[in-house]
Design a protein that fits this description.
single chain, alpha+beta, four-stranded mixed beta sheet, four-stranded antiparallel beta sheet
């Protein structure tokens, strides 16, 4: 009996800690997103840096990523870059996490594992590093900020704050950040290479259109003939990826479910047959293809586009818990214990689980799930002169349906998690049944049933899904490019969609100066 009580106590503590942490983090996510949505970045930073937001050490990566993203959105590009670099280093280290951490997660719960990021999150770190580098190159300055300096006094670890003044960058320093952006793109491609080596031939995330499109833009800005050729190849590669890899997403392919189910046949069928039978181009697909073709054509012209707009919209869909049933393979164990007096072990198991003898009992647990979040809106970039006259309106191309990508990635991962968690959970139940049967032999069915019922409840509650995620990344990433005469312009985004009563709304404005050199604008909207 003492063993059962001790087991319940241990599991109960894990339940309380895990449940409280999950609920608290979800509340903090909503608060954080509210401040980001309304542009209250100082308040958002207070939340992200607060002691209640991912307080556990195993979730430190997510704390760093949220702080870095908010700094980026606030225009603190230097601080953002420093924090994204820390996050990348930590993610790489945690990816090859210790055996101790793996064992702890395998025996108790996935929430107790160190969080090193989903594949798409690890990929996006490189995107934001490249973005931060390029914005430092473009703005030519480091913002003023307060630096924390750790020190020790009387054996205590303390932190003092020191103001750092704004710094104007020299041309050499600016150029260093342009090269830094290119280095981040190359690092990103290496990461994607590792994904492709593991999931080749599978209909899941292993390449990234943003890496190709933004990477091509960065190479264009380098200005050398070889970099322009690389940019051209990247735009061509993006067209290939859009069909071969992004055909799994509903935004681009009206037959995406059929595309996924028959994916392994494609190497034998040939691309023409695949396109005809398993692919139906959507308006998003056509829009992005128009953009990519225009970029390829533009690179062969003497007059290049001088305004590039990357738009991040909304928030990625959150992870939620999905209930899964898993059979307990009791048949492997039932013959190993003789009944003696009273019920045999098989009879006791049937009684304890409330099932007829010979029926395969099942248990339930949770898996993380992201509900498909369909795209229903189209966005256009509206450019007006300072007198308010529209000089150009161009449809934006959707590059990354991030919520769809995240949903598909978790769905693909589900089969591996199902087996891993199911076996772990079944092992806990079988151990509990053995212990309860021992109690039954000594103290009777009532005490044994009570002991197993308590343990069963504790086990079920301990298997909560790992719902940690990077909450400030966008739902979608879109792009547009155009050529304008030198001058000052107002930019706005117009959007339409089935979920909007009025036909069009202008929701965002920014004034930009456009010259001979390319200007990049990175918008973040929440409509």
């Amino acid at each position: 009996m003492k063993k059962i009580i001790k087991l319940v106590a241990i599991l109960g503590m894990a339940i309380v800690l895990s449940s409280c942490a999950t609920n608290k983090n979800r509340k903090e996510h909503l608060k954080l997103q509210k401040f980001v949505k309304t542009g209250q970045y100082d308040q958002a930073l207070i939340v992200a840096k607060g002691k209640d937001f991912y307080a556990d050490k195993d979730s430190r990566l997510l704390k760093l990523l949220e702080i870095a993203t908010i700094n980026y959105l606030k225009g603190n590009y230097y601080q953002a870059l420093q924090t994204f670099d820390l996050a990348e280093d930590l993610s790489n280290k945690l990816f090859t996490k210790s055996v101790k951490g793996k064992l702890k997660a395998a025996l108790v719960n996935s929430n107790m594992d160190k969080y090193y990021g989903e594949k798409y999150e690890r990929s996006l770190i490189r995107f934001y590093q490249a973005l931060s580098h390029y914005m430092l190159y473009q703005t030519g300055k480091y913002e003023a900020f307060i630096r924390d300096i750790p020190y020790e006094k009387d054996g205590k670890k303390l932190v003092k704050q020191e103001p750092v003044a704004e710094k104007k960058l020299s041309n050499k320093e600016r150029k260093r950040h342009l090269f830094g952006a290119r280095a981040s793109i190359l690092n990103w491609d290496s990461l994607l290479d590792s994904y492709r080596s593991v999931t080749g031939g599978e209909p899941t995330y292993k390449d990234d259109l943003v890496a190709k499109v933004f990477g091509a833009f960065i190479h264009e800005q380098m200005g050398t003939r070889s970099d322009r050729q690389i940019a051209l190849n990247l735009y061509k590669k993006a067209k290939e990826i859009l069909f071969k890899n992004y055909g799994v997403y509903k935004s681009f392919n009206g037959k995406n479910k059929k595309f996924i189910s028959e994916f392994k046949k494609f190497s034998k069928l040939g691309m023409k047959k695949v396109r005809k039978k398993y692919f139906s181009a959507t308006s998003y697909y056509k829009g992005l293809m128009t953009f990519l073709n225009s970029r390829i054509k533009s690179l062969n012209k003497s007059k290049k586009d001088n305004l590039f707009v990357f738009m991040q919209s909304g928030f990625v869909a959150p992870k939620v818990a999905n209930k899964i049933n898993f059979p307990i393979p009791t048949g492997l164990f039932l013959g190993k214990i003789s009944g003696g007096k009273g019920l045999s072990f098989p009879q006791f198991v049937s009684s304890a689980l409330g099932v007829a003898h010979g029926t395969m009992p099942s248990i339930s647990f949770e898996l993380p799930y992201i509900a498909p979040d369909d795209n229903t809106r189209s966005y256009s970039l509206v450019v007006t002169n300072m007198k308010g006259k529209v000089v150009k309106e161009i449809k934006m191309g959707l590059i990354e349906p991030m919520s769809e990508l995240a949903s598909e990635t978790l769905d693909y991962k589900k089969s591996a998690l199902y087996s891993k968690i199911g076996v772990r959970l079944a092992t806990k139940h079988i151990a509990a049944l053995y212990a309860a049967y021992t109690i039954y032999k000594k103290s009777g069915m009532l005490m044994a049933s009570m002991a197993y019922a308590l343990t069963n409840k504790a086990i079920a509650a301990s298997e909560q899904a790992d719902l940690r995620f990077w909450s400030t990344i966008p739902k979608n990433i879109s792009v547009a490019s155009l050529r304008l005469p030198r001058g000052e312009y107002n930019l706005a985004v117009r959007y339409t969609g089935a979920d909007i009563k009025s036909s069009e709304l202008i929701l965002w404005k920014q004034t930009v100066k456009v010259g001979k050199k390319a200007k990049m604008v990175d918008l973040r909207i929440h409509k």
